[in-house]
Amino acid sequence: MVYQALYRVWRPQQFIDVVGQEHVTKTLQNALLQQKVSHAYLFSGPRGTGKTSAAKILAKAVNCEKAPVTEPCNECAACKGITKGTIPDVIEIDAASNNGVEEIRDIRDKVKYAPSVVKYKVYIIDEVHMLSIGAFNALLKTLEEPPKHVIFILATTEPHKIPLTIISRCQRFDFKRITASSIVKRMKLIVEESNVDCDESALHMIARAAEGGMRDALSLLDQAISFSNNRVTLEDAQTVTGSVSQGFLTQLANAIFERNVAVGLETLEELLYQGKDPSRFIEDFILFYRDMLLFKTAPNLEESMERVLLNNEFRELAELVPVDQIYGIVDLLNKTQAEMRWTNHPRIFLEVAVVKLCQLESPKADSGEIVQLLSRIDKLEQELRELKVNGPTPVTESAPSIQRQAPRSSRKGFQPPVGKINEILKEATKTDLNQIKGSWGVMLGRLMKSHAALLNEAEPVAASSTALIIKFKHEIHCQMAMENNRFTETVASAFHELNGSKLVIVGVPEEQWIPIRENFLNSHQLQEGEKGQEKTEEEPHIVEAKKLFGKEFIEIID
């Protein structure tokens, strides 16, 4: 007798055998029992999740001689005939090879004839999204109002390719991916009934590799049984699925933790030499660190681990690797996995990723630096509180720097040099200001991060050939910048390199800039002939406008 694949032998014959789709089977069973079967159904979902099997079970249930029933009896002539495919009233059509208008017209012409053997004529159209637009249009009217003895069941893996006019005429059921635990439970039943000796760890490996498809899982199980001698082991399952053993993953993870690039690359080379799929390997490695993170943060959720068996080697490594480092490793591996999808040389990306992982900065050093910074911040905050309570520190001979800063700390707020600002405004021009604005972004890029941060919400508002006025949104930022001689010298030096002019930098808070500017404009308008930023040499079109309409009717808005 010709050997049949496991997924054909163990195809579900009742709704209870359809694994992981209880939300679909329960609804169909209730409709069968209440005799509220619809004229058209759409079964959509990933491959190998039971769409066609559920369609055949539904066809048997509606035509069962014991109907109405929630499950077909599989004993009557109708059930046996539909199972064997000898009932002419249950027609299964492959839309991938019968996707033309003529095939659908043939269905439309024959649908009006009553069934010859059973009660309902059932059309099961598989991969219905492969139909052409003309075929869909030919199916529309028949699908909406078929004869009472006809039921349409459409199955597809890509429902987004089906016209909405077809979907709206059907009851839609979305089949979801089957969980790994449900797949393992089903495979346990199959190997027990088939008298096959199989390790449970091998079943878990196959279930994860199936990615939610029962047919894929049974095909891999069939292949593993053929590959093994007398017992399907974890190594057999890894060989069939292309997965990597936990020992290799632990060895590579140890090399990354110890920053040993040579051992890491040698381990990777050995894995690829054994013919392991690079895509499968990087997925296994991501799941390895995912399970490590889960073990460190929630050790009680051992059942949720997808890739790792909790042995001593894994436990010891998990205790050594910090959580912050796991975050960085998973992030880098995820980026590498995305890049590998668009390359013909995945090995190069894997090798580069291993080198990067071995050279990741130790989070312990970062944590130490953070602790030091936090302690310094706490110390500064404590000194600030003492300063507010006790007042400024008395002047002493041993602290000349404090002597210079003490008078400023007793002032209320920042006091900009108004006289100096007015002198700059008298010489300021739009040309100089536009030149500064044009090189402002380049200048920020040349500053240190701490200096550039002070200028995040600042902007140049006036400039001459020798000076620049910068407006700060916050007074505290202005005070910090202007009291830092190194800051002003760095900004002036940057502009000198860009524009060739040595500028004097003057800062002013936004709140104080507005009244200073208004006072300057008011006094400047009273002094005829003076030049400033707001009043420069009149342009020809302004002079011509005054001649035409009169000076008193012209208002110049900058």
How would you describe the overall organization of this protein?
This protein has 558 residues and is of the alpha/beta class. It is 56% helix and 9% strand. The protein has helices at residues 6-9, 22-33, 51-63, 77-84, 101-110, 133-144, 164-167, 180-193, 200-210, 214-227, 234-241, 246-257, 261-273, 278-297, 312-320, 323-340, 346-358, 363-390, 400-409, 418-427, 430-438, 440-446, 449-454, 475-482, 485-499, 510-526, 540-549; strands at residues 40-44, 90-94, 121-126, 150-156, 171-174, 197-198, 231-232, 458-463, 467-472, 504-509. The strands form 3 sheets. It has a 5-stranded parallel β-sheet with strand order 2-3-4-1-5, with helices on one face. A 3-stranded mixed β-sheet has the order 8-9-10, sandwiched between helices. The chain has a two-stranded parallel ribbon with strand order 6-7. Strand 2 (90-94), helix 5 and strand 3 (121-126) form a beta-alpha-beta unit.
Shape: elongated
Q: What is the name of the CATH superfamily of the largest domain?
A: P-loop containing nucleotide triphosphate hydrolases
DSSP helix fraction: 55-70%
**How many strand segments?**
10
CATH architecture of the largest domain: 3-Layer(aba) Sandwich
**Roughly what is the average pLDDT, rounded to an integer?**
83
CA radius of gyration is: 39 Å
Main sheet overview = 5 strands, parallel
Contiguous uncertain segments of 5+ residues: 363-367, 395-411, 528-536
Kindly name the structural category.
alpha/beta
**How many separate domains make up the residues?**
4
CATH level-1 class of the largest domain: Alpha Beta
State the end-to-end CA separation: 96 Å
The fraction of residues in strands falls at 5-15%
Main β-sheet, spatial strand arrangement? 2-3-4-1-5
The helix count comes to: 27
CATH topology of the largest domain: Rossmann fold
